[in-house]
TrEMBL record:
A Pfam family: Sugar_tr
GO cellular component: membrane
Keyword Transmembrane attached: yes
Record-annotated Major facilitator superfamily (MFS) profile domain positions: 11-166
Topology of this chain in the membrane: Multi-pass membrane protein
Taxonomic path: Bacteria, Pseudomonadati, Bacteroidota, Cytophagia, Cytophagales
Compartments where located: Membrane
Alphabetical keyword list: Membrane, Sugar transport, Transmembrane, Transmembrane helix, Transport
Protein name per the record: Sugar transporter
Ligase keyword on record: no
Length: 166
């Protein structure tokens, strides 16, 4: 591989991390539903909202990510998506109330939706034609790895914490 191809592969792998975060963020909530329900004294509707809120805002983000990336550039919107992922993770972990948890998850949803649409597009645009399919597939592979990592980390945390919920 040439230096340029190596650089392109490295950039594609970095951008594909958005797929990992998307898969992880969308799935990690499954490990905490047994705990947030009593922690925040949630009704079943509120519990469902805490899970679905990320998906709802991801859907909205998918509708606006393309036009925003046309105006500001895919790279810039992906950078903002990464910031939203970070703020969402910190906010979700430290949320003292149900409302702040949902707001944090909704912010993450904007990052998820934008990266879901823009990451494969950006990779396809920077990849040489003979490598395009392989490089774009890194994003999809990372989504699956992120989902798996969420389920395995949920299991291990429950197991090592001795919660009895595993």
């Amino acid at each position: 591989m040439t230096k340029t191809q190596t650089y392109t592969v490295k950039i594609a792998l970095i951008v594909a991390l958005g797929g990992f975060l998307m898969g992880f963020d969308a799935s990690v909530i499954s490990g905490v539903v047994k705990f947030i329900e009593p922690e925040f004294n949630l009704t079943k509707l509120q519990l469902g909202w805490s899970v679905a809120s990320l998906t709802l805002t991801a859907t909205l983000a998918m509708m606006v990510a393309g036009p925003l990336s046309d105006k500001f550039g895919r790279r810039k919107v992906l950078q903002w998506s990464a910031i939203l992922f970070a703020v969402s993770a910190i906010g979700s972990a430290l949320a003292p109330t149900f409302l702040l948890l949902v707001i944090a998850r909704m912010l993450g949803g904007f990052g998820v939706g934008a990266s879901l649409i823009l990451a494969p597009m950006y990779i396809a645009e920077i990849a040489p034609a003979n490598m395009r399919g392989r490089l774009v597939s890194f994003n999809q592979l990372n989504i699956v790895i992120g989902i798996s990592a969420a389920f395995f980390s949920n299991y291990l945390i429950l197991k090592f914490a001795g919660s009895g919920a595993d």
